[in-house]
Amino acid sequence: MSAIVQSIYKFIFKITEILFPSIAGKWAVDLFFTPFRFDRPHREKAFMEKAKSKNIKFSPDINKIYDLDWAKDRLLNKKFNDVTPKTFYRLYEMGEGPLVLLVHGWSGRASQMGSIAQTLVDYGFKVISFDAFAHGESPGKQTTVLEFVEIINNINRQFGPFYAIVGHSLGGIAAGRAIVKGLKTEKLVTIGSPTTMQFILEAFCKALNASDKTLQYIKNFVERYAKREADDFSLSYLGKYLEIKGLIIHDKNDRETDYDQSLYLDESWQKGRHIQTTGLGHVRILRDKSVLKMIADFIRDDNKEIDDQKKAASA
Prior knowledge:
The protein has a single domain (44-314), classed as Alpha/Beta hydrolase fold, catalytic domain (Rossmann fold). The N and C termini lie far apart (55 Å). The chain has helices spanning 3-19, 21-32, 45-50, 62-65, 68-71, 114-122, 145-159, 170-180, 197-208, 212-226, 235-238, 260-268, 289-300, 304-314; strands spanning 52-57, 88-94, 99-103, 126-131, 164-168, 187-191, 245-251, 272-277. It is globular and about 65 Å long. It is 45% helix and 15% strand. It is α/β, with parallel strands linked by helices and 315 residues long.
């Protein structure tokens, strides 16, 4: 969203909040669950050309995930989170070897993590990634982190198990939640991930110029709609249940997710190792050569399958 458009949104929302607070709350909820689809930059072309892509038939069981009857009369958008078009998601595959899953962030897409994919393929891994609903080439207008998790579990059932998972931003939350809820993997890498639900809500309301009252409205809606407490969406809370090796990468100059968020996860995740970068921000970090090597070395370490392949090749 351009700075001008964002300023207009802020102004209109603040007026709406003052004159029609109940409408503002419902509008904010709709926006909170609606990612932006940004144009794909040229640098992601290589991934799109190299990766094998296909649509995987899948529809989330929304009655199991959400309290739809409760939410129905509390929204302006009568087609809010409509699952009618959500009959598939786009899957991408590259390479051969132990399987690594890449999970993009909110308003992201699989190709955004193309540099990580290529690096891991060069290291001897097979990489699978996907466009979540309402992202990239997958259908839908609204979605939630819970639907990210549903897709992760669906991929695991069809193609897993995963040797490791790499999650960027909200993708780190989705991966962490999937693991805590039973998905088996050896390692997890989070990159620029927000780790508290409170931060996510505050950052969203700041971008919208919304008040604390609207923030509380969104929080209450999320908890009731998703039938879960806010902590269930907080990676720092989930971290104490993560029993696998981890790498927590976060840039000191990240303007989208405060650096302190990574420190909260570092405190709670006993086997997580914290790495600070500087000057890479929230997205450029995904294609920095030193970060790519760091991720690949961490995932590659102690991988017997690749060791055996190398010994056989040199024999």
